Amino acid sequence: MEYGINSSSLTKSQFAALIDHTNLKPVATRSDIERLCRDAAEAGFASVCINPVHVPLAAGLLQNTGVKICTVVGFPLGASAHDAKAAEAAFAVKQGAQEIDMVIDIGAVKEGRFADVEQDIAGVVTVSAPAAVKVILETCYLTENEIIQACTAAVNAGAAFVKTSTGFGSGGATVDAVALMRRTVGSSVGVKAAGGIKTLETAMALIDAGANRLGCSAGMELLQAFPGR
């Protein structure tokens, strides 16, 4: 993985390769997912991020394209039982998921039960291998110290990424949260910014703050706005 990316030096294809092209809407249809996959393959996005029910469809459509299949676990509240999250992740990987975006136990974070938080993450990491696990913190609900402690738990549990948001909370990715997450994890894991990334200016600011993956539903619009170089 690459860290310390300077947005001004990115080519269009390099920018595309940072994007998880996302449709997590509850009303998403098979035709919506087919379109998402076509766009992702054409653009060269890192992955499609979809709900678990669509994993087999996307896995078939994106075979041999280089676009990964990313799905979500414990989504969007993070309040599933730990064993249920692990079982959901294991089943998704069996069906073709190559990346797992799991929602942290937010209530446990708020209570300071970081041993439980780490155990929850580790359970998903263990059953998901070799799929990479991204841990969604839902930073809009957390203090700076809680973000630091949650990131530390994710690193200790073997996560590949920490991620800002589900896109279903009270707020999305912010430059300050991304910068704090990057300072906390250093170069050991990735940082994914997600939620509310609608403009190229926002995307670039998040990359410069330390994000090396962007989760957004506006990936095609962002790519179209990217200078042609």
Could you characterize what this model shows?
This protein has ten helices and eight strands. The mean pLDDT is 96. The longest helix has 15 residues, at 114-128. The chain has an eight-stranded parallel β-barrel with strand order 1-2-3-4-5-6-7-8, surrounded by seven helices. The two termini are 23 Å apart. Helices cover 45% and strands 16% of the residues. It is an alpha/beta fold and 229 residues long.
Span from first to last CA? 23 Å
Shape: globular
List how many beta strands DSSP finds.
8
N to C succession of SSEs: HEHEHEHEHHEHEHEHEH
Helix content: 40-55%
Report on the biggest sheet. Answer: 8 strands, parallel, barrel
Q: State Rg.
A: 16 Å
Strand content: 15-25%
Query: How many separate helices?
Result: 10
Secondary-structure-based class equals alpha/beta
Strand order of the largest sheet: 1-2-3-4-5-6-7-8
Are there runs of 5+ residues with pLDDT below 50, and where? none
How confident is the prediction overall: mean pLDDT? 96
Write the layout of secondary structure elements.
Elements lengths: L11 H5 L2 E5 L6 H14 L3 E4 L4 H7 L6 E6 L8 H14 L3 E5 L2 H5 L3 H15 L3 E5 L7 H14 L3 E3 L11 H11 L4 E5 L5 H10 L3 E4 L2 H7 L4
Parallel strand pairs: 1-2, 1-8, 2-3, 3-4, 4-5, 5-6, 6-7, 7-8
Helix pairs in contact: 4-6, 6-7, 7-8
What's this, in brief?
The chain has 229 residues and is α/β, with parallel strands linked by helices. The protein has helices spanning 12-16, 30-43, 55-61, 82-95, 106-110, 114-128, 144-157, 175-185, 200-209, 219-225, and strands at residues 19-23, 47-50, 68-73, 99-103, 132-136, 161-163, 190-194, 213-216. The two termini are 23 Å apart.
